[in-house]
Design goal:
single chain, five-stranded mixed beta sheet, 419 residues, alpha+beta, globular, Immunoglobulin-like, Deoxyribonuclease I, Chain A, seven-stranded mixed beta sheet, 2 domains
């Protein structure tokens, strides 16, 4: 396996791989359509002290693949780290992103990076807890002027009643703060929750039904149960990307914990105003087939091999993201399709989940130089099923036009075909 050979060759060749992958990612990343915004979260592992300079190229590859409009990170250590991440990762290809000054709280801290052409940061403040500070960012989308709050957190780690008690205290601080918000406010709580199962008191307090539910959080995945070391939840695990213990001090043991999550206010899942796309909740690199092994062990069907390798070295956590829509289908010219598996081997399923009052749909597949290589139509609202056929290895653009009773909706995404 290539990654084993790379480990034998040492860090210099690994970093060269990531440097090459960063360039390749120009062809893999895609921009979201107007009216759709990508919010990501990533625990970047004690940055920059934990071999941060050696991980720069791998972090570039990961960020280029996600292409977020807003990303919050945990385990940022200093203003120097914020500057390095902003200049050498986020703005490696141009000056799109901005950040806030470093907030030096207890332990490691949060940081935010945002595309200044897409969103405006209106205000930032920090909630003190018994452990680490919780960051609150108030943001406004430039296109539609919708405002929302983004909370980045990193709860107490490890098992045991004492650590669960600290996490409950942190959760209580957040929930009581959110309960002061006006009904109908939009807010997301993201980050490294370090929670092992949905019955843990901290999770129950964040998501429980109380007399005052203004601050209640919801899990878009509705994934209740024991997440820790449970293969039934392998598709939503976010730590650890490595089976081995590496020199940067990150956790080993393979993928077996759902520590990183996106929780949201109720109106983010009711499809009016701002809402989270049903199929957009993505744990980058998790294909559900890497339980208790490294994320790049063997074949990873969720991401290209260079991205899987970069995820392995960039951090011991996987990043995740959601796409936010403004709820007005008439004003959004393009949407992102659900394509799975992507990369494609022998067969691929293409879905378009927003097509109410569906009548018919047409699909066109073009290669990277714009040549049409496949066309078809369907009256099946579940979407298309494509078989490998004559598509050679490469990257393709998938265009779908859905005709409903009231409008025509266009979708566009990229797909890879591999051997």
């Amino acid at each position: 396996m290539i990654i084993k050979r790379l480990r034998q060759l040492g860090n210099s060749l690994i970093l060269l791989l990531c440097r090459i992958a960063t360039v390749c990612m120009i062809f893999w990343s895609y921009g979201l359509a107007g009216g759709t915004f990508r919010i990501a979260t990533y625990n970047i592992l004690n940055f920059p002290d934990a071999m941060g300079m050696q991980r720069i190229n791998c972090l570039r590859t990961v960020i280029a693949y996600i292409e977020p409009d807003v990303i919050v990170v945990q385990e940022m250590q200093s203003q120097a780290g914020v500057d390095l991440f902003l200049d050498s990762v986020m703005n490696y290809q141009g000056d799109l992103y901005e950040s806030t000054p470093f907030h030096d709280g207890a332990g490691t801290d949060n940081a935010i990076f945002y595309n200044q052409d897409v969103v405006q940061l209106l205000h930032d403040q920090y909630l003190s807890t018994i452990n680490r500070d919780i960051a609150q960012y108030r943001l406004r989308f430039s296109e539609n002027q919708h405002e929302f709050y983004l909370f980045s957190l990193h709860f107490k780690a490890s098992q045991g009643s004492g650590n669960e008690s600290i996490r409950l205290d942190e959760a209580t601080t957040l929930r009581e703060h959110l309960s002061l918000f006006a009904q109908g406010s939009y807010f997301l709580a993201v980050g490294d929750f370090n929670i092992y199962h949905s019955d843990e008191p901290a999770f129950q307090y964040l998501t429980g039904d109380f007399p005052n539910n203004n601050g209640r959080l919801y899990d878009p995945l509705k994934a209740s149960g024991l997440w820790h070391e449970n293969s039934a939840f392998s598709e939503i695990h976010t730590q650890s990307t490595r089976f081995e213990q590496l020199a940067d001090g990150g956790a080993g043991g393979g993928m077996d914990d759902r520590f990183d999550m996106v929780l949201c206010s109720s109106n983010f899942i009711d499809s009016s105003g701002l809402f989270i796309n049903d199929y957009s909740y993505s744990i980058v690199g998790n294909d559900g087939n890497h339980f208790n092994v490294s994320i790049n062990d063997g074949y990873n069907s969720a991401v290209p091999v260079d991205v899987a390798d970069a995820l392995y070295y960039a951090s011991d956590h996987l990043p995740l993201f959601v796409d936010i829509d403004d709820g007005n289908l008439q004003t959004i010219p393009e949407r992102i399709l659900k394509i799975w598996p992507n990369p494609m081997q022998s067969i691929v399923y293409i879905e378009f989940p927003w097509a109410d009052d569906f009548e018919n749909a047409g699909i066109t597949v073009t290669n990277i130089i714009g040549q049409r290589v496949y066309e078809s139509t369907t009256r099946d609202p579940n979407g298309f099923v494509l078989r490998r056929g004559s598509l050679p290895v490469g990257v393709y653009f998938i265009h779908v036009k859905v005709q409903t009773r009231y409008s025509t909706i266009n979708y566009r995404s990229k797909m890879a075909v591999v051997e």
